[in-house]
Amino acid sequence: MSLPLFEALAEIDLDLRQLRVRWALLGGLAVSIRSEPRTTKDIDLAIAVDDDREAERIIGDFMARGYQMLHVAKTLIRYEKEAVWLQGSRSWPVVFCHNLAKSVQCPDRWLGTFLDERTPSRLVLPFLKRVIEKGSEGWENSVKRCFDQEDYAEIAVQVVLPLESAPEYLLRMALGRVSRRPLLVRDLALRNEVSTSTLMALLRHSDVEVGLHAAMGEWYAKPRGKVRPEVRAAWRLAILRSAEEIHRSIGVNSYLLREILVQDSELACEWLGKLLAGKNTAFPDLDLESVVTDADFDDRQRLALLDQMPAGPMASVVISRLIAGQTEVYRELLGQDRLKAYHLHPLEGLPGPAWSEMALVALDHGYDPAEIFIRSFQERGATVVMIWGRDQDHWRRWETAFAALEKHPDARLREIARLGREEARERIRATDARQREFNLTGKVSAPFGLPLSD
Length: 454
Known about the structure:
Blueprint: H1 3-18, E1 22-26, H2 27-34, E2 44-48, H3 52-64, H4 70-87, H5 91-103, H6 107-116, H7 121-134, H8 139-148, H9 150-160, H10 168-176, H11 182-190, H12 196-203, H13 208-220, H14 232-242, H15 246-249, H16 254-262, H17 265-277, H18 288-294, H19 299-308, H20 313-323, H21 327-334, H22 353-364, H23 369-375, E3 378-379, E4 382-383, H24 391-403, H25 411-441
Antiparallel strand pairs: 1-2, 3-4
Helix pairs in contact: 3-5, 4-5, 5-7, 6-7, 7-9, 8-9, 9-10, 11-13, 13-14, 14-17, 16-18, 17-19, 18-20, 19-21, 21-22, 23-25, 24-25
Protein backbone atom coordinates (compact mmCIF):
# COMPACT_ATOMS: atom_id res chain seq x y z
CA MET A 1 0.00 0.00 0.00
CA SER A 2 1.46 3.34 -1.01
CA LEU A 3 2.95 5.80 1.46
CA PRO A 4 1.11 8.80 -0.13
CA LEU A 5 -2.20 7.13 0.78
CA PHE A 6 -1.22 7.01 4.46
CA GLU A 7 0.03 10.58 4.30
CA ALA A 8 -3.31 11.63 2.87
CA LEU A 9 -5.11 9.73 5.64
CA ALA A 10 -3.03 11.51 8.28
CA GLU A 11 -3.90 14.88 6.70
CA ILE A 12 -7.59 14.00 6.62
CA ASP A 13 -7.45 12.89 10.25
CA LEU A 14 -5.95 16.23 11.24
CA ASP A 15 -8.60 18.16 9.32
CA LEU A 16 -11.44 16.14 10.81
CA ARG A 17 -10.13 16.62 14.34
CA GLN A 18 -9.83 20.35 13.81
CA LEU A 19 -13.39 20.45 12.45
CA ARG A 20 -14.56 18.32 15.43
CA VAL A 21 -16.15 15.78 13.13
CA ARG A 22 -17.01 12.25 14.27
CA TRP A 23 -15.76 9.79 11.71
CA ALA A 24 -14.69 6.18 11.07
CA LEU A 25 -12.39 4.56 8.53
CA LEU A 26 -13.93 2.10 6.07
CA GLY A 27 -12.91 0.08 3.04
CA GLY A 28 -9.54 -1.32 2.13
CA LEU A 29 -7.50 0.67 4.66
CA ALA A 30 -9.81 -0.30 7.52
CA VAL A 31 -9.63 -4.01 6.60
CA SER A 32 -5.85 -3.82 6.38
CA ILE A 33 -5.57 -2.94 10.09
CA ARG A 34 -6.67 -6.45 11.15
CA SER A 35 -5.69 -8.50 8.08
CA GLU A 36 -3.35 -8.61 5.14
CA PRO A 37 -3.12 -5.20 3.43
CA ARG A 38 -5.36 -4.81 0.38
CA THR A 39 -4.67 -2.86 -2.76
CA THR A 40 -6.77 0.31 -2.80
CA LYS A 41 -6.60 3.69 -4.49
CA ASP A 42 -8.86 5.73 -2.22
CA ILE A 43 -9.79 6.45 1.37
CA ASP A 44 -13.30 5.57 2.48
CA LEU A 45 -14.77 7.40 5.47
CA ALA A 46 -18.08 7.37 7.31
CA ILE A 47 -18.99 10.68 8.95
CA ALA A 48 -21.64 10.91 11.67
CA VAL A 49 -24.05 13.84 11.38
CA ASP A 50 -27.33 14.70 13.05
CA ASP A 51 -29.09 16.17 10.00
CA ASP A 52 -28.65 17.43 6.45
CA ARG A 53 -27.68 20.90 7.63
CA GLU A 54 -24.68 19.52 9.51
CA ALA A 55 -23.70 17.42 6.49
CA GLU A 56 -23.84 20.48 4.28
CA ARG A 57 -21.72 22.45 6.76
CA ILE A 58 -19.04 19.74 6.83
CA ILE A 59 -18.94 19.53 3.04
CA GLY A 60 -18.55 23.28 2.88
CA ASP A 61 -15.71 23.16 5.41
CA PHE A 62 -13.95 20.48 3.38
CA MET A 63 -14.33 22.59 0.27
CA ALA A 64 -12.85 25.58 2.05
CA ARG A 65 -9.77 23.46 2.83
CA GLY A 66 -9.28 22.55 -0.84
CA TYR A 67 -11.01 19.18 -1.08
CA GLN A 68 -12.67 18.23 -4.37
CA MET A 69 -16.35 17.35 -4.60
CA LEU A 70 -16.04 14.75 -7.36
CA HIS A 71 -17.28 11.86 -5.20
CA VAL A 72 -20.23 13.95 -3.97
CA ALA A 73 -21.39 14.50 -7.55
CA LYS A 74 -21.13 10.81 -8.38
CA THR A 75 -22.96 9.85 -5.20
CA LEU A 76 -25.79 12.28 -5.94
CA ILE A 77 -26.12 10.87 -9.46
CA ARG A 78 -26.42 7.39 -7.98
CA TYR A 79 -28.96 8.55 -5.37
CA GLU A 80 -30.94 10.26 -8.11
CA LYS A 81 -31.21 7.02 -10.09
CA GLU A 82 -32.04 4.99 -6.98
CA ALA A 83 -34.74 7.46 -5.92
CA VAL A 84 -36.42 7.12 -9.29
CA TRP A 85 -36.26 3.33 -9.15
CA LEU A 86 -37.35 2.97 -5.54
CA GLN A 87 -39.92 5.72 -5.11
CA GLY A 88 -40.66 7.21 -8.50
CA SER A 89 -39.52 10.52 -6.98
CA ARG A 90 -36.32 12.53 -7.20
CA SER A 91 -37.15 15.08 -4.54
CA TRP A 92 -34.49 14.21 -1.97
CA PRO A 93 -31.40 14.83 -4.12
CA VAL A 94 -32.95 18.06 -5.42
CA VAL A 95 -33.73 19.37 -1.94
CA PHE A 96 -30.25 18.40 -0.77
CA CYS A 97 -28.58 20.25 -3.68
CA HIS A 98 -30.82 23.26 -3.12
CA ASN A 99 -29.73 23.54 0.51
CA LEU A 100 -26.13 22.70 -0.28
CA ALA A 101 -25.88 25.40 -2.96
CA LYS A 102 -27.00 28.01 -0.43
CA SER A 103 -24.44 26.96 2.17
CA VAL A 104 -21.21 26.29 0.25
CA GLN A 105 -18.58 28.99 -0.02
CA CYS A 106 -17.63 28.36 -3.64
CA PRO A 107 -20.67 27.24 -5.66
CA ASP A 108 -18.77 27.88 -8.90
CA ARG A 109 -16.36 25.02 -8.14
CA TRP A 110 -19.28 22.74 -7.36
CA LEU A 111 -20.97 23.78 -10.57
CA GLY A 112 -17.87 23.06 -12.63
CA THR A 113 -17.50 19.60 -11.16
CA PHE A 114 -21.18 18.77 -11.59
CA LEU A 115 -21.00 19.78 -15.24
CA ASP A 116 -17.84 17.72 -15.76
CA GLU A 117 -19.59 14.67 -14.31
CA ARG A 118 -22.75 15.18 -16.40
CA THR A 119 -24.85 15.45 -13.26
CA PRO A 120 -28.63 15.65 -13.99
CA SER A 121 -29.71 19.20 -14.77
CA ARG A 122 -32.21 19.37 -11.89
CA LEU A 123 -29.29 18.90 -9.48
CA VAL A 124 -27.12 21.42 -11.32
CA LEU A 125 -29.77 24.15 -11.38
CA PRO A 126 -29.43 25.27 -7.71
CA PHE A 127 -25.69 25.80 -8.14
CA LEU A 128 -26.14 27.67 -11.41
CA LYS A 129 -28.66 29.99 -9.75
CA ARG A 130 -26.36 30.49 -6.76
CA VAL A 131 -23.38 31.34 -8.98
CA ILE A 132 -25.44 34.02 -10.72
CA GLU A 133 -26.83 35.39 -7.44
CA LYS A 134 -23.34 35.73 -5.98
CA GLY A 135 -21.98 37.23 -9.17
CA SER A 136 -19.12 34.77 -9.02
CA GLU A 137 -16.21 35.49 -11.29
CA GLY A 138 -16.79 33.89 -14.66
CA TRP A 139 -20.51 33.21 -14.07
CA GLU A 140 -21.31 34.23 -17.63
CA ASN A 141 -18.95 31.54 -18.94
CA SER A 142 -20.66 28.99 -16.72
CA VAL A 143 -24.03 29.91 -18.20
CA LYS A 144 -22.62 29.81 -21.73
CA ARG A 145 -21.19 26.38 -20.99
CA CYS A 146 -24.69 25.21 -20.08
CA PHE A 147 -26.08 26.64 -23.30
CA ASP A 148 -23.44 24.71 -25.25
CA GLN A 149 -24.55 21.37 -23.76
CA GLU A 150 -28.02 20.22 -24.80
CA ASP A 151 -28.66 18.52 -21.44
CA TYR A 152 -28.28 21.87 -19.67
CA ALA A 153 -29.71 24.28 -22.25
CA GLU A 154 -33.12 24.35 -20.58
CA ILE A 155 -31.80 25.36 -17.16
CA ALA A 156 -29.67 28.01 -18.85
CA VAL A 157 -32.82 29.44 -20.44
CA GLN A 158 -34.56 29.16 -17.07
CA VAL A 159 -31.96 31.30 -15.29
CA VAL A 160 -31.26 33.86 -18.03
CA LEU A 161 -34.81 34.90 -18.93
CA PRO A 162 -35.65 36.16 -15.41
CA LEU A 163 -32.47 38.28 -15.18
CA GLU A 164 -33.31 41.97 -14.96
CA SER A 165 -30.28 42.99 -17.02
CA ALA A 166 -28.92 39.88 -18.68
CA PRO A 167 -25.91 40.32 -20.97
CA GLU A 168 -27.19 40.79 -24.49
CA TYR A 169 -25.40 37.78 -25.93
CA LEU A 170 -26.80 35.47 -23.22
CA LEU A 171 -30.32 36.78 -23.78
CA ARG A 172 -29.94 36.12 -27.51
CA MET A 173 -28.84 32.58 -26.74
CA ALA A 174 -31.84 32.09 -24.46
CA LEU A 175 -34.29 33.45 -27.03
CA GLY A 176 -32.73 31.22 -29.65
CA ARG A 177 -33.42 28.11 -27.58
CA VAL A 178 -36.96 28.71 -26.29
CA SER A 179 -38.74 27.31 -29.35
CA ARG A 180 -38.57 23.80 -27.92
CA ARG A 181 -39.57 24.99 -24.46
CA PRO A 182 -42.82 27.02 -24.80
CA LEU A 183 -44.24 25.70 -21.51
CA LEU A 184 -41.21 27.09 -19.68
CA VAL A 185 -41.91 30.48 -21.27
CA ARG A 186 -45.55 30.34 -20.17
CA ASP A 187 -44.65 29.38 -16.60
CA LEU A 188 -42.03 32.11 -16.21
CA ALA A 189 -44.49 34.74 -17.46
CA LEU A 190 -47.23 33.28 -15.27
CA ARG A 191 -45.03 33.70 -12.19
CA ASN A 192 -44.06 37.26 -13.19
CA GLU A 193 -40.41 36.19 -13.35
CA VAL A 194 -39.45 37.94 -16.59
CA SER A 195 -38.76 41.63 -17.01
CA THR A 196 -40.94 43.79 -19.22
CA SER A 197 -38.27 44.03 -21.92
CA THR A 198 -37.74 40.26 -21.96
CA LEU A 199 -41.48 39.63 -22.06
CA MET A 200 -41.74 41.96 -25.06
CA ALA A 201 -39.01 39.95 -26.81
CA LEU A 202 -40.88 36.71 -26.08
CA LEU A 203 -44.20 38.10 -27.30
CA ARG A 204 -42.55 39.22 -30.54
CA HIS A 205 -40.58 35.99 -30.97
CA SER A 206 -40.41 34.64 -34.51
CA ASP A 207 -41.84 31.35 -33.22
CA VAL A 208 -45.62 31.84 -32.98
CA GLU A 209 -45.85 29.18 -30.28
CA VAL A 210 -43.41 31.02 -28.02
CA GLY A 211 -45.31 34.28 -28.44
CA LEU A 212 -48.64 32.59 -27.67
CA HIS A 213 -47.34 30.94 -24.51
CA ALA A 214 -45.81 34.20 -23.31
CA ALA A 215 -49.18 35.90 -23.92
CA MET A 216 -51.05 33.20 -22.01
CA GLY A 217 -48.63 33.48 -19.11
CA GLU A 218 -49.11 37.26 -18.96
CA TRP A 219 -52.92 36.97 -19.00
CA TYR A 220 -53.09 34.26 -16.33
CA ALA A 221 -50.54 35.94 -14.04
CA LYS A 222 -51.91 37.69 -10.98
CA PRO A 223 -54.06 39.71 -11.23
CA ARG A 224 -55.62 37.27 -13.68
CA GLY A 225 -57.03 38.71 -16.88
CA LYS A 226 -55.08 41.97 -16.62
CA VAL A 227 -52.49 42.75 -19.28
CA ARG A 228 -50.04 45.51 -18.51
CA PRO A 229 -50.56 48.58 -20.75
CA GLU A 230 -46.90 48.69 -21.79
CA VAL A 231 -47.09 45.21 -23.35
CA ARG A 232 -50.73 45.28 -24.48
CA ALA A 233 -50.07 45.87 -28.19
CA ALA A 234 -47.42 43.13 -28.45
CA TRP A 235 -49.59 40.80 -26.34
CA ARG A 236 -52.57 41.27 -28.65
CA LEU A 237 -50.47 40.65 -31.74
CA ALA A 238 -49.08 37.42 -30.23
CA ILE A 239 -52.62 36.14 -29.67
CA LEU A 240 -53.71 37.05 -33.18
CA ARG A 241 -50.65 35.46 -34.77
CA SER A 242 -51.61 32.13 -33.22
CA ALA A 243 -54.67 31.94 -35.51
CA GLU A 244 -52.30 31.66 -38.47
CA GLU A 245 -50.62 28.49 -37.18
CA ILE A 246 -53.44 27.13 -35.06
CA HIS A 247 -52.59 23.42 -35.21
CA ARG A 248 -49.07 23.68 -33.85
CA SER A 249 -49.49 26.63 -31.53
CA ILE A 250 -52.58 25.64 -29.55
CA GLY A 251 -52.51 21.93 -28.77
CA VAL A 252 -53.08 21.13 -25.11
CA ASN A 253 -53.42 24.81 -24.25
CA SER A 254 -56.66 25.23 -26.20
CA TYR A 255 -58.67 25.74 -23.01
CA LEU A 256 -56.34 28.53 -21.83
CA LEU A 257 -56.68 30.36 -25.16
CA ARG A 258 -60.44 29.88 -25.16
CA GLU A 259 -60.72 31.60 -21.77
CA ILE A 260 -58.78 34.60 -23.06
CA LEU A 261 -60.89 34.94 -26.21
CA VAL A 262 -64.32 34.69 -24.60
CA GLN A 263 -63.43 37.54 -22.23
CA ASP A 264 -62.76 39.96 -25.11
CA SER A 265 -65.27 39.86 -27.97
CA GLU A 266 -63.25 42.28 -30.13
CA LEU A 267 -60.13 40.14 -29.80
CA ALA A 268 -62.13 36.96 -30.40
CA CYS A 269 -63.76 38.45 -33.52
CA GLU A 270 -60.43 39.50 -34.98
CA TRP A 271 -58.81 36.16 -34.05
CA LEU A 272 -61.61 34.17 -35.69
CA GLY A 273 -61.44 36.46 -38.72
CA LYS A 274 -57.74 35.66 -39.17
CA LEU A 275 -58.46 31.97 -38.73
CA LEU A 276 -61.24 32.04 -41.35
CA ALA A 277 -59.09 34.01 -43.76
CA GLY A 278 -56.17 31.57 -43.42
CA LYS A 279 -55.38 28.40 -45.28
CA ASN A 280 -56.20 26.06 -42.41
CA THR A 281 -59.35 24.14 -43.25
CA ALA A 282 -59.16 21.20 -40.84
CA PHE A 283 -60.96 21.46 -37.52
CA PRO A 284 -58.46 22.71 -34.89
CA ASP A 285 -58.02 21.59 -31.28
CA LEU A 286 -59.73 24.72 -30.02
CA ASP A 287 -63.45 24.41 -29.20
CA LEU A 288 -64.64 27.01 -31.71
CA GLU A 289 -68.28 26.38 -30.88
CA SER A 290 -67.82 27.46 -27.29
CA VAL A 291 -65.77 30.51 -28.33
CA VAL A 292 -68.50 31.66 -30.71
CA THR A 293 -71.19 30.90 -28.13
CA ASP A 294 -69.56 32.55 -25.11
CA ALA A 295 -67.74 35.54 -26.65
CA ASP A 296 -70.87 37.75 -26.50
CA PHE A 297 -70.55 39.04 -30.06
CA ASP A 298 -72.84 41.87 -31.18
CA ASP A 299 -74.59 41.83 -34.56
CA ARG A 300 -71.83 43.87 -36.18
CA GLN A 301 -69.22 41.29 -35.20
CA ARG A 302 -71.44 38.37 -36.21
CA LEU A 303 -72.02 39.90 -39.64
CA ALA A 304 -68.29 40.55 -40.09
CA LEU A 305 -67.46 36.92 -39.33
CA LEU A 306 -70.26 35.68 -41.56
CA ASP A 307 -68.83 37.68 -44.47
CA GLN A 308 -65.47 35.91 -43.99
CA MET A 309 -66.89 32.42 -43.42
CA PRO A 310 -65.70 29.94 -46.06
CA ALA A 311 -67.77 26.91 -46.98
CA GLY A 312 -66.38 23.80 -45.37
CA PRO A 313 -66.13 21.86 -42.10
CA MET A 314 -65.63 24.98 -40.02
CA ALA A 315 -68.86 26.54 -41.30
CA SER A 316 -70.88 23.45 -40.41
CA VAL A 317 -69.49 23.61 -36.87
CA VAL A 318 -69.90 27.27 -36.00
CA ILE A 319 -72.59 28.81 -38.22
CA SER A 320 -75.53 27.90 -35.96
CA ARG A 321 -73.67 29.34 -32.95
CA LEU A 322 -72.80 32.44 -34.89
CA ILE A 323 -76.43 33.12 -35.88
CA ALA A 324 -77.64 32.38 -32.31
CA GLY A 325 -81.25 33.26 -33.09
CA GLN A 326 -80.40 36.74 -34.40
CA THR A 327 -82.93 37.32 -37.20
CA GLU A 328 -80.99 40.00 -39.07
CA VAL A 329 -77.80 37.94 -39.05
CA TYR A 330 -79.78 34.94 -40.27
CA ARG A 331 -81.26 37.04 -43.06
CA GLU A 332 -77.70 37.90 -44.14
CA LEU A 333 -76.75 34.19 -44.13
CA LEU A 334 -79.67 33.37 -46.44
CA GLY A 335 -78.38 35.99 -48.85
CA GLN A 336 -75.01 34.26 -49.16
CA ASP A 337 -75.18 31.75 -52.02
CA ARG A 338 -71.72 30.35 -51.24
CA LEU A 339 -73.12 29.22 -47.86
CA LYS A 340 -76.34 27.76 -49.28
CA ALA A 341 -75.52 24.31 -47.86
CA TYR A 342 -75.74 25.81 -44.36
CA HIS A 343 -78.83 28.00 -44.76
CA LEU A 344 -81.05 25.79 -42.61
CA HIS A 345 -78.46 24.77 -40.01
CA PRO A 346 -79.58 27.47 -37.54
CA LEU A 347 -83.06 25.86 -37.53
CA GLU A 348 -81.74 22.66 -35.97
CA GLY A 349 -83.05 21.92 -32.50
CA LEU A 350 -86.18 22.53 -30.44
CA PRO A 351 -88.46 25.30 -31.84
CA GLY A 352 -88.97 28.45 -29.79
CA PRO A 353 -89.68 32.17 -30.34
CA ALA A 354 -86.36 32.88 -32.06
CA TRP A 355 -86.76 29.72 -34.17
CA SER A 356 -90.17 30.93 -35.33
CA GLU A 357 -88.78 34.27 -36.48
CA MET A 358 -85.96 32.58 -38.40
CA ALA A 359 -88.43 30.12 -39.94
CA LEU A 360 -90.44 33.05 -41.32
CA VAL A 361 -87.25 34.55 -42.80
CA ALA A 362 -86.46 31.18 -44.41
CA LEU A 363 -90.00 31.05 -45.85
CA ASP A 364 -89.53 34.55 -47.26
CA HIS A 365 -86.40 33.31 -49.03
CA GLY A 366 -88.32 30.53 -50.75
CA TYR A 367 -87.70 27.54 -48.50
CA ASP A 368 -90.54 25.02 -48.28
CA PRO A 369 -92.33 24.33 -44.95
CA ALA A 370 -91.38 20.64 -45.23
CA GLU A 371 -87.67 21.55 -45.44
CA ILE A 372 -87.96 23.82 -42.43
CA PHE A 373 -89.89 21.66 -39.96
CA ILE A 374 -87.79 18.53 -40.52
CA ARG A 375 -84.61 20.49 -39.85
CA SER A 376 -85.62 20.98 -36.24
CA PHE A 377 -85.40 17.21 -35.72
CA GLN A 378 -81.73 17.27 -36.71
CA GLU A 379 -78.63 18.32 -34.83
CA ARG A 380 -75.51 19.47 -36.69
CA GLY A 381 -76.69 17.85 -39.89
CA ALA A 382 -77.55 14.39 -38.50
CA THR A 383 -81.03 13.02 -37.85
CA VAL A 384 -81.56 12.34 -34.16
CA VAL A 385 -82.35 8.63 -33.75
CA MET A 386 -83.03 7.51 -30.19
CA ILE A 387 -83.64 3.95 -29.06
CA TRP A 388 -85.80 3.57 -25.95
CA GLY A 389 -86.23 4.63 -22.35
CA ARG A 390 -87.01 8.33 -22.31
CA ASP A 391 -87.51 8.75 -26.05
CA GLN A 392 -91.19 9.47 -25.63
CA ASP A 393 -90.48 12.38 -23.28
CA HIS A 394 -87.82 13.64 -25.66
CA TRP A 395 -90.13 13.85 -28.68
CA ARG A 396 -93.04 15.17 -26.60
CA ARG A 397 -90.99 18.32 -26.13
CA TRP A 398 -91.09 18.78 -29.92
CA GLU A 399 -94.81 18.07 -30.01
CA THR A 400 -95.43 20.69 -27.34
CA ALA A 401 -93.19 23.24 -29.05
CA PHE A 402 -94.91 22.84 -32.42
CA ALA A 403 -98.36 22.88 -30.77
CA ALA A 404 -97.54 26.34 -29.41
CA LEU A 405 -97.05 27.58 -32.98
CA GLU A 406 -100.43 26.38 -34.30
CA LYS A 407 -102.08 29.66 -33.27
CA HIS A 408 -99.49 31.84 -34.99
CA PRO A 409 -101.09 34.56 -37.20
CA ASP A 410 -98.95 33.52 -40.21
CA ALA A 411 -100.61 30.60 -42.02
CA ARG A 412 -97.24 29.37 -43.34
CA LEU A 413 -95.92 28.95 -39.82
CA ARG A 414 -99.11 27.19 -38.77
CA GLU A 415 -98.49 24.72 -41.61
CA ILE A 416 -94.94 24.14 -40.30
CA ALA A 417 -96.43 23.61 -36.85
CA ARG A 418 -98.90 21.03 -38.18
CA LEU A 419 -96.22 19.11 -40.04
CA GLY A 420 -93.84 19.27 -37.08
CA ARG A 421 -96.44 18.05 -34.62
CA GLU A 422 -97.35 15.10 -36.85
CA GLU A 423 -93.69 14.17 -37.14
CA ALA A 424 -93.24 14.33 -33.38
CA ARG A 425 -96.31 12.14 -32.79
CA GLU A 426 -95.07 9.61 -35.34
CA ARG A 427 -91.73 9.43 -33.55
CA ILE A 428 -93.48 8.95 -30.22
CA ARG A 429 -95.58 6.10 -31.69
CA ALA A 430 -92.50 4.50 -33.24
CA THR A 431 -90.69 4.72 -29.92
CA ASP A 432 -93.62 3.07 -28.10
CA ALA A 433 -93.65 0.26 -30.68
CA ARG A 434 -89.93 -0.26 -30.31
CA GLN A 435 -90.25 -0.41 -26.55
CA ARG A 436 -93.03 -3.03 -26.75
CA GLU A 437 -91.02 -5.06 -29.25
CA PHE A 438 -88.03 -5.03 -26.98
CA ASN A 439 -90.10 -6.03 -23.93
CA LEU A 440 -91.52 -9.04 -25.84
CA THR A 441 -88.52 -10.25 -27.83
CA GLY A 442 -85.46 -8.63 -26.30
CA LYS A 443 -84.67 -7.23 -29.76
CA VAL A 444 -85.48 -3.98 -31.48
CA SER A 445 -85.63 -2.95 -35.14
CA ALA A 446 -84.82 0.47 -36.50
CA PRO A 447 -87.54 3.13 -36.94
CA PHE A 448 -88.20 4.63 -40.37
CA GLY A 449 -86.08 1.94 -42.03
CA LEU A 450 -82.84 3.14 -40.36
CA PRO A 451 -80.57 0.24 -39.29
CA LEU A 452 -79.29 0.08 -35.73
CA SER A 453 -75.60 -0.47 -35.07
CA ASP A 454 -74.67 -3.70 -33.31
